[in-house]
Amino acid sequence: MGFNDRDYSHNNYRGSGGGGSQFRLSMPPVTPVVMYLLIANLAIFFVSALIPPLKELFDTWFSVFPANFFMSIQVWRLVTYQFLHAHFAHVFFNMMALYVFGPDLEQRFGRNKFILFYLVCGATGGILYTILAAIGILGVGTLVGASGAVLGLIAASAILTPNRQITIMFFFTMTYRILALIIVAMSTVFFLFGTNQGGDAAHLAGMATATVYLLWKPWQTGTVQKTKRIKWEHKLNQQRNMQVDVDKILDKISKHGIGSLSRQEKKILKQASQKQQEQNKY
Q1: Of 50, 80, 101, 199, which one has the greatest count of Cβ atoms within 10 A?
Q2: How far apart are CA 233 and CA 220, in angstroms?
């Protein structure tokens, strides 16, 4: 949904996470998961637009709608609400953002990881809105739209390729990093002072989820590598210490014979022999 297109009332709004604007003209080739998401979103929108009772059914059962505790814990809504949109501008800008930013990330992440990343970014928007409504910060209404997910893609693109450029509204060229910062600033202001606070909460949650994931992953990888290095160094030290002991034992055998060995020395020699046999197998 366009940033200036906010048609929601305070207590009975349709919180939608449209975070779009017009994007660059040089479009990437569409990738499989992005294509399926585009088809699903557009098909659901046009079918529901043509059949009003179906739209009402979708909004009732598949939007995030924390009207009571039972509806708040219907977890399928956290996924299905991402495929519902309030109006044409809403779905258009979200799908344009998906089409522009999705393919590169799908190629980077792989299909399975990309779809999981996309849906989780969107789901956290629904979770945050539900929490804020439950504690009375926001009014209760229906939350629809893929904005949390697609803004997660924009945040991820800003982290992975911060200096790549995009042209908006045919005239304004900026880097992905600047675009993401502008969206964060605008969503924060609109969340604090606007009328689409549920949608803006979804914007910020989706972008925060993407940021945490991408910044946490290198830390996690570094921790795993550090743990492996420590284990490997410990193993090498054990091997060195055993070799020193074996050398002393062999020297003792050469001087005094094997009968001079203690029980512990024989055990060490046996363990060293077993390890050597295991290594020879490989």
Answers
A1: 199
A2: 20
Give tens-digit pLDDT for 32-83.
999 999 999 999 999 999 999 999 999 999 999 998 999 999 999 999 999 9
The type of residue at 211 is: T
Residue 57 lies in a domain: yes
Rounded to whole angstroms, the Cα distance separating 47 from 49 reads 5
135 and 247 together in one domain: no
Crossing angle of the two packed helices 147-160 and 197-256, in degrees rounded to 10: 50
List residues bridging with 175 in a β-sheet.
Answer: 165
- The encoded tokens of residue 25 equal 């003209």
Instruction: Tell me if 54 is assigned to some domain.
Output: yes
Q: Which CATH number do you get for residue 38?
A: 1.20.1540.10
CA distances from 175 to 158, 159, 207, 222 (A): 8, 11, 17, 28
Work out the angle at residue 206's Cα, subtended by the Cα atoms of residues 203 and 209, and round it to the nearest 5 degrees: 145
Residue 1: inside a domain: no
> Number of folded domains in the chain?
2
Distances in Å between the Cα of 76 and the Cα atoms of 35, 55, 215, 277 are: 22, 17, 28, 56
Q: What is the pTM of this model?
A: 0.69
User: For 138-185, what is each residue's pLDDT tens digit?
Assistant: 989 899 999 999 999 999 999 999 999 988 877 788 999 999 999 999
245 with 181, same domain? no
Please, what's the b/e burial string for 38-60 (b: 16 or more CB within 10 A of its CB; e: otherwise)? beebeebbeebeeeeeebeebbe
| Amino acid (1-letter code) at residue 219 | W
